Amino acid sequence: MKKYWSVLLLLVFFSVWVSAQTITTDQNRYEKGDLIIITGQGETDQTVTIQAHNEGRFVFEETTTIDGNGSFLLEFESRFLDPSGEWVLLWVEADKRVFITMEPSAFSSRYVVTFLSPVPGTFERATTIPITVRVEQAGKIKPRALVVFWTPTGEKKFLKHAGFGNFTGEFTVPFDQSLGQWELVVTAEDRSSAEEVFGGENRIQLEFSLAPLIIELVEPLPARVSQGETVFLPFSVHYLNEQALQNPTVTAELNGVPLTIQSNVDGFFSTQFTAPGMGGEINLLFRAVDSAQNGGEKRYSIIVTGLWDSFWEKNLLLVFLGIIILIVILVFGVWKWNKHQQKRALTTRKQVLVEQLKKLQIQYFKEQSIDRKTFEEKSALIENEMASLKKKGNKSRSKE
After folding, report:
1. For each of the chain's 400 residues, which pLDDT tens digit applies?
2. If one looks up domain 2-102 in CATH, what number appears?
3. On the chain, which terminus has fewer CB atoms closer than 10 Å, C or N?
4. Do the two domains 2-102 and 214-305 of this chain adopt the same fold?
5. 326-349 CB burial, b ≥16 within 10 A, e <16
6. Which residues sit opposite 63 in a β-bridge?
7. pTM for this predicted structure
8. How many angstroms separate the CA atoms of 320 and 288, rounded?
9. Which residues contact 109 (CB under 8 A, 6 or more apart)?
């Protein structure tokens, strides 16, 4: 029973002590440039860390200590570079918080901040978003301003002046970035004047989507392979910005049958397959998924040919050259045969003419069966034809 009352008293004491830890502000609404006064109570000498966030954007962190009276006071002068909207002031050690509203002032919204890029839309993970804004007032550029934006994780980053009042930077979307809406907020502050401080603010809505994984063969895939041929396929998998995969799961299939994947370094993989014994089209399917559920796939088709088809395909040029050579040989042979036949015909005709001339001479000189005029006329005809044949024979030999 005593133990029960001891525990009960301890709980009561603890609840009283916890309730004694308080945090408050002097106002609920502020304008940029106002001084925020934060007060609270707690245990003497306790460290107080105050963090300010605006919808996940980190604004500031300040530290103080509770005094001997159990109170603390912390002051923070807001700036035009701070984002407007609802702020959460968190006492980290006590997990106590208070909400305030930060509104733009006339001076903090004097400058016009115009987005040149990006435009509102959807951006995939693992891509780089270029950010460019122009800061001006009544058409006059303000190159001396400080310009910042916040990443989706709440980190504040400065944009660099690129000339003509344009300020640029970029943000690479992580492969595991939370999907959905992101409000890109850009603020500006100009303290170049000794008299006044001016600023500006603008925001646009962007959205994040899954990143496609790019699957590429290292070497071109052959359009045709022969039956029984082994094909080695090295390939790479990466994001659009060429980053290597994070904890990927990679698979490959041939006509629905899984293939063995060999994992190499820096997003490179390899597999191989043996072309099936039946000809026709075969289909390859590659898939990849990373640890954040980004994915991609790639399909290829290859024609498997028979052995004779493969032979004709691989040796078609040699076969064509062989046919050309054979045609040349045949044409040359026919030409030589025709030349031989022409030569033989000339020789035969010459022999016939010689015999006719001999017979004519016998008829005139020995038998005296023809007169001189007939002999001379026929002899002239035979000799003229023999001369013509001799001329043809000489011309044919000169061509050879």
Report:
1. 545 555 444 444 444 444 489 999 999 999 999 999 999 999 999 999 999 999 999 999 999 999 999 999 999 999 999 999 999 999 999 999 999 999 999 999 999 999 999 999 999 999 999 999 999 998 899 999 999 999 999 999 999 999 999 999 999 999 999 999 999 999 999 998 878 999 999 999 999 999 999 999 999 998 899 888 999 999 999 998 887 787 889 999 999 999 999 987 788 999 999 998 877 899 999 999 999 999 999 999 999 987 555 555 567 677 778 888 989 888 888 877 887 787 788 788 788 878 887 887 788 788 888 888 887 887 788 788 778 877 777 666 666 5
2. 2.60.40.1930
3. N
4. yes
5. eeeeeeeeeeeeeeeeeeeebeee
6. 49
7. 0.69
8. 45
9. 199, 200, 201
Residue range 214-305 in CATH 3.40.350.10: no
Classify 149 as helix, strand or coil: strand
Structure tokens that stand for 386 in this block: 């023999």
Looking up tokens 């990443």, which residue turns up? 151
Rounded Cα gap, residues 359 and 349, in angstroms: 15
Residue 241, both tokens: 């910005």
CA dihedral angle for residue 135, residue 138, residue 142, residue 146, rounded to 10 degrees: -50
The structural domains of the chain, with segments of one domain joined by +, span: 2-102, 112-209, 214-305, 317-399
Classify domain 112-209 at the CATH class level. Answer: mainly beta
